[in-house]
Amino acid sequence: QQQQHQQQHLGEVMVHTESMERNLRSLALALTLNSPVLLEGVTGSGKSSLVSHLAALTGRTGAHAPLAVQVGDQTDSKALLGSYVCTDVPGQFRYLVGPLTRAVVEGRWLLIEDIDLAPLDVVSLLLPLLESGRLCVPGRGEVHQAGPGFQLFATRRLRSAPAGPGPGPKATEEGDEAGDSTTGRSRPRPAGGHFAAPHSHAALLENLWTKVQV
Fold first, then answer.
1. What values do phi and psi take at 196, rounded to 5?
2. Beta strand pairing status for 142-145 and 134-137?
3. Helix (H, G, I), strand (E, B) or coil at 192
4. I need a labelling partner for 192 at 20 to 30 A (CA). Which of 27, 109, 125, 167 fits?
5. Which helix (H) or strand (E) element contains residue 100?
6. pTM for this model (two decimals)
7. What are phi and psi for residue 160, nearest 5 degrees?
8. Confidence check: pLDDT of 65 > 80
């Protein structure tokens, strides 16, 4: 049921606006770099729908449509890699391949939503994949090289800063006006700006993405 909901979510139709066209061009340009793409924006800015729209424009529909998984602080690596599930026969189990393994093996697009909420278990799984294109499945002793056509997208929610000056969080993944990710010292936060949630495990992946702000 969750997978069906995700597929319906990815199938939403976007209304063409000037900002959407601009974001779409930025995303298409990022894809030419052949690197994982991180889409950043406030809630409701259309990050996930943008990936779906570009997939449709490039013919990735139906059986070739992007896969999607939403992560949270309780998500473990099995949700992405796969796990054994019960069958209709009592005492028998079968292995259900997870969306990340499937996308890597089949050369599909995969969207990981809310990567900023991912626990260390999930981030540690993604690190070698982003660095070398290899996915390790420890429970089955498998190592998969990303197939042709594989593309990883992730979304990260940005928070809106309150109007007026005020202290920002100590460190954001961006190391921008809201904080210094090197020193950990807070800096004045610009009025009306946006910042990423501090203290996220996903900061370990920070330098491995091509970023598109939506």
1. -85, 155
2. antiparallel
3. coil
4. 27
5. helix 99-106
6. 0.78
7. -85, 130
8. yes
